[in-house]
Design brief:
about 725 residues, two-stranded parallel sheet, transmembrane helix, protease, EC 3.4.17.21, glycoprotein, hydrolase
Length: about 725
């Protein structure tokens, strides 16, 4: 709904009232001489004010001019504009129907968001892409037990609203549980329970004499492996199919099993917007670069209740200690004697997805962008994932529109983004970043992401380190919704014994293309635990949100306030509030951890240590420069030029961590400090190239230790060069001083 009409200070209505009080009645026209004198007085006053007026010293001007509006005043106003009921109404509307990407229901949510931005006069835009998504056609699972009985397992969610099977959710029903991009196939075989499906789990099975080749494996999600990772390990072990369940009961978890990000038929470049390609290059489904991203064995998600039926019927070897989870009784691992008959038929097809934007153009630096983003598509109703974040984004848009009515214009441009296709592998955001990579690389200040805004109690933040200080400052200004008299910072610090900001090494939400491909400083915010009971199930509804996660929508309002304040600082502060001293300190800690891990090897970390020293020196110089410019006058043209030059260096420094060749075997990921690594067991959640080389040292059978240590040393040098590039960017010199 549009915000209520508000008259700005000093409106034409007020001015007309003021001048009507001194104007003579129209029924008695003034004598001609008075008219001439009055006009002469106006001309004289106009000439005087044109050449001598100072708004800080003229009492009459102070009377007619609205109070001085500053970035601080606008931030205070932003906080005062919260309304829980409005956020609740947004979420209720967004979750009336399931809205899987590529369906008419999803297109309706895009129209809802676009209309909201348009009603607020926020310059709405769209970006459409033709991409390959995946939908189920039919699936079945029957278990046959040793006593000759059989049961057809429902593959559905008891107590949830009606599920749809052949319409992919197009008829308004919840899509049947499935794994996106799973190949169609069938398997009739004994079952083996493989715990979480890790390589170590298979080694334990092998030690028991249990083989999974040609069998259907039953795995419990909850280890370090992703959903797709579980399927790929099973495929390498020779399994015929995978059944994947989540312990604890509730619903059935849908999700993607595709490897990588973005449209699989346009890897590294943006998908064409028009149906039929529109001139854009498309890979064929059978080309290795596309087909290699999909598993080759079928998989299905399973409810805990159905998994429990199978688990209790297994014979064979006794389950190793620790192979249990919430409510799981796994006495035996098989194989069999229970046999399952699994069939899955799906289709991969090209559909249109739509990203929706609102653009608030900057007044002084319109070519600098602060991008805020949340994805809109959902596996089902999406109350938590992702529309708690969408509701917060719509509320921020409403507040920004009200600020504009009060005279606010951001210094830099703010872009509010509603992504599509995230659940299939961050498709919408990846295509947009690939399409706009050069402009974003030159002009994007930061990307601020909120996916699942509210999952339950407890504030969490992840960010690149130069944003730590800003996060602390903002959370000190926002009240904690769960504790009277406390700020978010107070309780956050108490809960963690210190403020704990996670880093963005994983590729699990829309920040990944911005940071890990584009080198743009990023933030990710949410309330609650990393996983919650209705994740990707038909129970992720408005009703669940009201009953369990945020009954009064206080946490939604809080996330909107933190998110919006960060954006206002980045858009309005004369000097971008980045502190690279924090980044240097973080890099030093990483090097210490790496040193402990590599103790006893011949690998030298001196290149890293030296590069970090250079970076720390540049960060300290930049910090001093920021202080000097803030203490200066700030109104002369030279100072403005210095600020602009410094801001460019602060903005571009993160790009220095990118490497054109990317991470070995995953070249799309370019960031050498933060990015996903190939070994899920790795103790390093930083330096992904080094982490991968260390993993190869432990598993390689084709390269000797000296050769593998040389590969690690090469990755150390690559990371050191990236840090040096960032230091040069921060200093702004093309010649080393």
């Amino acid at each position: 709904m549009p915000p209520p009409t508000a008259k700005p200070h000093g409106s034409t209505t007020a001015a007309t009232s003021f001048f009507s009080a001194i104007k003579p009645p129209p029924s008695t026209p003034p004598p001609p001489l008075y008219t001439i004198l009055f006009l002469l007085l106006l001309v004289t006053l106009g000439f005087y004010f044109l050449h001598h007026h100072s708004p800080t010293t003229t009492a009459a001007a102070d009377f007619l001019t609205p109070p001085q509006q500053t970035p601080l005043r606008f931030r205070e106003q932003f906080l005062s504009l919260s309304t829980n009921a409005t956020v609740s109404a947004y979420l209720h509307h967004l979750t009336l129907r399931p809205h899987l990407a590529g369906t008419p229901a999803s297109a309706d949510t895009a129209e809802f968001v676009h209309s909201h931005f348009r009603r607020l006069n926020l310059d709405p835009r769209r970006a459409a892409y033709r991409v390959l998504l995946s939908y189920p056609i039919r699936s079945s699972l029957t278990a046959r037990f040793p006593n000759g009985t059989a049961v057809a397992l429902s593959l559905a969610e008891e107590g949830a609203k009606k599920t749809g099977e052949t319409e992919e959710g197009r008829n308004g029903a919840v899509v049947r549980p499935y794994h996106a991009y799973s190949p169609s196939g069938a398997a009739h075989a004994e079952v083996v329970y493989v715990n979480t499906g890790s390589e170590e789990d298979y080694r334990q099975l092998a030690a028991l004499g249990v083989r999974v080749k040609g069998r259907v494996v039953l795995a419990r999600k909850g280890g370090e492996l992703s959903r797709g990772g579980v399927v790929r390990v099973a495929e390498r072990e020779g399994a015929a199919a995978v059944l994947l369940f989540v312990g604890g009961g509730g619903g059935v978890e849908r999700g993607t099993v595709m490897n990588g990000m973005g449209d699989p038929l346009s890897p590294g470049w943006a998908a064409a917007a028009e149906e039929g390609g529109g001139g854009g290059e498309r890979l064929g489904l059978e080309e290795a670069e596309a087909s290699g991203r999909f598993p080759r064995i079928p998989s299905l998600p399973l409810s805990f209740e159905d998994a429990d039926v199978i688990l209790r019927s297994l014979g064979g070897q006794t389950a190793p200690p620790g192979w249990v989870g919430p409510g799981i009784v796994a006495q035996r691992v098989g194989p069999g004697p229970t046999v399952v008959n699994l069939t899955y038929q799906g289709e991969k097809k090209e559909v249109t997805i739509q990203n929706v934007f609102a653009v608030i153009k900057g007044l002084e630096e319109p070519d600098r962008y602060v991008v805020m983003g949340n994805h809109r598509d959902a596996w089902t109703y999406g109350a938590v994932d992702p529309n708690s974040g969408t509701a917060a984004l719509l509320d921020i848009a409403r507040r920004f529109a009200l600020l504009q009515r009060n005279g606010w214009r951001p210094r830099r441009t703010i872009v509010l983004s509603s992504w599509d296709g995230e659940e299939f592998g961050m498709v919408g955001s990846t295509e947009w970043v690939e399409q706009n990579l050069v402009n974003l690389g030159a002009k994007a200040v930061a990307y601020l992401n909120v996916d699942c805004a509210v999952q339950g109690p407890g504030f969490n933040a992840a960010a690149t380190p130069q944003l730590d200080e800003l996060l602390f400052e903002v959370t000190k200004k926002v009240k904690d919704p769960d504790f009277v008299g406390a700020t978010i910072y107070d309780k956050w610090a108490a809960m963690n014994q210190a403020t704990s900001i996670e880093r963005l090494s994983g590729a699990f939400s829309d920040f990944a293309p911005f940071l890990q491909h584009g080198g743009i400083p990023s933030v990710d915010l949410f309330y609650g635990r990393a996983e919650y009971p209705v994740y990707h199930t038909a129970f992720d509804s408005y009703e669940w949100m009201v009953k369990h996660a945020d009954p009064l929508f206080h946490r939604h309002v809080t996330i909107a306030e933190i998110w919006g304040l960060i954006a206002l600082h980045l858009a309005d502060d004369s000097i971008i509030p980045f502190n690279y001293v924090s980044y240097a300190q973080q890099l030093s800690k990483y090097t210490d951890e790496l040193s402990n891990l590599l103790d006893g090897s011949t690998i030298s970390l001196h290149p890293l240590v030296s590069a970090i020293e250079q970076f720390a020196s540049a960060a300290k110089e930049a910090e001093n420069e920021v202080k000097q410019l803030r203490e200066g006058d700030g109104r002369d043209g030279l100072t403005a030029l210095k600020q602009r030059a410094l801001n460019d260096r602060l903005m571009l420094t993160e790009r220095g961590f990118l490497d054109a060749d990317g991470i070995q075997s995953r070249h799309w990921f370019k960031h050498l400090i933060y990015g996903p690594h190939g070994d899920y067991k790795s103790k390093l959640d930083f330096f992904p190239g080094i982490a991968d080389a260390i993993h190869e040292l432990s598993v390689s059978t084709t390269m000797g230790r000296s050769g593998q240590e040389a590969a690690i040393q090469h990755e150390v040098w690559r990371a050191a060069r990236a840090i040096q590039r960032a230091a040069y960017a921060l200093r702004g010199h093309i010649f080393v001083p």
